[in-house]
Amino acid sequence: MNAATWQVVKQRISLPQRGPQTLWAVCTSLLLIMPGAALAQRRPQLPAPQTLDLVTRDGVHLHATYFASPLEKEAVPVILLHGQGGQGSDYRDFPNYLQGRLRCAVLLPDLRGHGSSTQVEFGGGVTREVTADQMRPGDYAGMVTEDMEALKRFLLEEHNEGRLNIDKICVVAADLGAIVALNWAARDWSFPALATYKQGRDVKGVALLSPSFNYRGFGLKDALAHPAIRNEISISVIYGKGDSRARRDANRIIRILESARRGGVARASRARSQVSRDVEASSADDDDDSAASEEATFDEFTQLELDSSDQGTALLTSGATKSQVGKSLTTFIEQIQRLNIPWQERKNPLE
After folding, report:
1. Domain of 27, in residue numbers
2. 174-224 pLDDT, tens per residue?
3. What is the distance in angstroms between the CA of the first residue and the CA of the last residue of the chain?
4. 177 in the same domain as 136
């Protein structure tokens, strides 16, 4: 017991300092106070949020806030992407919930042209400002190829410092951010496998809040044709049915994914049958087969239609839908947390 706790004990005891009643009071006070004090000492302190200035390879200064996790190597990294014309702060207290309740490592960026990410730096110290209303189609593609890659470089540094497990990335994204998220997930699963270094296939889950199908020519057509999006990555689609455009776009995405997942289930069933025959023929060890099955459980597809006109991040902040959406996302992220993917160092041998 430290000095401060002992002072509290002395202050709470007002009985005379002698006799059996006094001894009983002292013992009772210690039993009441010490467990709470010990629990406070054992409970991990949540790291304070960090403000980041991440520079993309094409010179954009990305403003981001990072909420580190006390779980370190066990921590699931969650990237929260805002919608068109928005910024990271649109998620309000949701990052704090993910850090405090689920112990996730949360990265909350302002994508280029949004929020505080409006400065582009060129050679010689020349800068210019880019805002959402000035953005061209190529700028939206840069959100995928430049912004998201800058965010992943930061997460990879954190991973190699033992502060999270980058092999369990989960992305929560709203309207335009959903287009960015699915295109980036497809990109992440497109890097070739190397014998000495794992350089992709880290995105295991993408939750879409009122996803847009297309915005100014920047869309989901190619991403939804990618095998990883169709059959590998866990995806959740959440939207309010009170907005006709949001409902139309969400249902279009849902139909494509449902059709792909039905085909994927049939292919997976045939593959499992073949594996079973191979296992039986070779008398393979049951434990190996079980481990392989356990690791391949991140291909869930869920959808949630809400009786609401709210869309995007508003679904997480509106009193009418906040609780239901929060519970749905909690369940989704907890599934990623349960994946049997141990932490491994990811340093590039060529660097």
Report:
1. 3-42
2. 999 999 999 999 999 999 888 888 989 999 999 999 999 999 999 999 999
3. 49
4. yes
